[in-house]
Amino acid sequence: MKIALIGATGMIGSRIAAEARSRGHEVTGITRTGNEGTARADAADAAAVAGLVRGHDAVVLSVSPPRDGSEASGPLLAAGRGVLEALREAGVKRLVVVGGAGSLEIAPGVRLVDTPEFPPGYKGESLAAAEQLAEIRAEAGDLDWTYISPAAVIEPGERTGTFRLGGDRLLSDADGNSRISAEDYAVALVDELEKSEAVRRRITVAY
């Protein structure tokens, strides 16, 4: 499979690239800087992205909102809109989005991001990611998209290949912890690229 990976050098993106390549897939890395052997394009620049993803089987969007205290939703939504337009222009149908956990429900109608315990420092980017998911659900019905939310905590760790998949509900273990390694998140994402079992819906992955 020929995969275009936007955000290929980030903590999650770099692990997705490694996992996909380890399975024999061809990965075109795309970043804003063009560093580390990647192609250069801003995700919000639909024309530039279309030129780079044309001829690929799938596009993975792995970008995060700004964490410098600036407004988060604008840049993230612009990236999402740019990529949707680029896929249409390039004739690529398959899109997998690295999403956030804040929009996952802990009870019917109650999102993780809306709980009093949610870390204030992550609230802005979590709300932005929730907006992006809502926009994809509303606007991307012509594309074969999948939005993959991690557990509440995702960080570098071990690749075990053992995890659970869910839908819109936050997954926690027997001790109430919700976590996944970035390596196992990458396994789940590449699995979905290969199998396309969750087209036009959100899934989540956790231990």
Describe the structure.
The protein has 207 residues and is an alpha/beta fold. The protein has a single domain, classed as NAD(P)-binding Rossmann-like Domain (Rossmann fold, 3-Layer(aba) Sandwich), CATH 3.40.50. Helix content is 35%, strand content 23%. It is built from five helices and twelve strands. The strands form three sheets. An eight-stranded mixed sheet has the order 3-2-1-4-5-8-12-10, sandwiched between helices. Strands 6-7 form a two-stranded antiparallel sheet. A two-stranded parallel ribbon has the order 9-11. Helix 1 crosses helix 5, helix 2 packs across helix 3 and helix 3 runs parallel beside helix 4. The protein starts with a strand and ends with a strand. The mean pLDDT is 95. Pfam families: NAD_binding_10. It comes from Actinomadura vinacea. This is NAD(P)H-binding protein.
Question: Which features characterize this protein?
Answer:
single chain, 207 residues, alpha/beta, Rossmann fold, two-stranded antiparallel sheet, 5 helices, globular
Unreliable spans: none
Q: Using the coordinates shown, work out and report the CATH topology.
A: Rossmann fold
Instruction: Give the count of structural domains.
Output: 1
CATH superfamily: NAD(P)-binding Rossmann-like Domain
Based on DSSP secondary structure assignment, what is the total number of beta strands? 12
How much beta, percentage-wise? 15-25%
Structural class designation:
alpha/beta
- Principal-axes geometry comes out as globular
Spatial order of strands in the largest sheet: 3-2-1-4-5-8-12-10
User: In angstroms, what is the radius of gyration?
Assistant: 16 Å
Number of helices: 5
Distance between the terminal alpha carbons, to the nearest Å? Answer: 28 Å
Organism: Actinomadura vinacea
Domain NAD(P)-binding: 7-194
Pfam families: NAD_binding_10
InterPro entries: NAD(P)-bd_dom, NAD(P)-bd_dom_sf, Polyketide_Oxido-like
